[in-house]
Specification:
- Strands 3-2-1-4-5-6 form a 6-stranded parallel β-sheet, with helices on both faces.
- The protein is built from 8 helices and 6 strands, in the order βαββαβαβααβααα.
- Helix 2 runs parallel beside helix 3 (87-115) and helix 3 (87-115) packs parallel to helix 5 (136-156).
- It has a single domain, classed as NAD(P)-binding Rossmann-like Domain (Rossmann fold), CATH 3.40.50.
- By secondary structure, the protein is an alpha/beta fold.
- Bound molecules: 1,4-dihydronicotinamide adenine dinucleotide (NAI).
Amino acid sequence: MKTAVVTGGASGIGLGIAQRLRTGGYTVATLDLNPDNDDDLAYRADVTDPEEIAAALSAIRDRTGPVTILVNCAGLEGFKRFPDLTFAEWQRVFDVNVHGVFHCVQAVLPDMLAAGWGRIVNISSSSTHSGQPFMSHYVAAKSAVNGLTKSLALELGPSGITVNAVPPGFIDTPMLRKNEEVGRLGGPVEDHILRTPVRRIGTPADIAAACAFLISEEAGYITGQILGVNGGRNT
Ligand code: NAI
């Protein structure tokens, strides 16, 4: 049975991905700042800390064998007018969203290279299609994730490893509901649904379905792609 690691797997989209991959027959371990204590393959690790990642991966490998699937879903957003944005805030958003992906890919890559097979899926953001006011640091960071995805796909393809990104748009998670609550969505969810071509909000299961496909054996000819899952809000 193949082992997958999902970062940010304790909440929202990451939780949905972990559940879907388990149903699909994979062994799934999660890394998160707030792990689910009832799940014995849920590990506490901050994706900005390479030592915590290494410790968690070593424990996971001891129990399940090599990790050949990685879904980078842990993310941190931010809202600030650009003139008010401090470099520390800019850097923190890059630390979690970009450097977190760097550390996690570096940590699992030896297993994938040894196996001659691997699947990496990076969860970016639909805001990278069009930009988003007050989210310059977040959009820049998630755009870097898309760029990293394409370059890694070219570099790792000859080693049997595919690398793709899924930029979600308007998915019903604690992150999105928190933004609705504090007025950062620019209106209630219902208004957004009316402007969404498929006329509903997305679910973690929608993103998980795309990930499950990209991870599957039959998706082996798909790499370096940015697969938008957003109900048609971005085309
Ligand atoms: P969420 O807030 O429900 O879940 C994020 C998870 O990441 C949490 O469990 C959190 O503890 C974990 N996390 C945050 N920082 C971490 C760190 N440094 N180390 C380890 N774990 C960390 O958010 P949601 O909505 O499920 O977001 C998941 C991903 O999807 C994020 O990368 C987000 O940027 C992206 N996204 C979500 C959209 C949406 O509509 N909900 C839209 C576009 C992108």
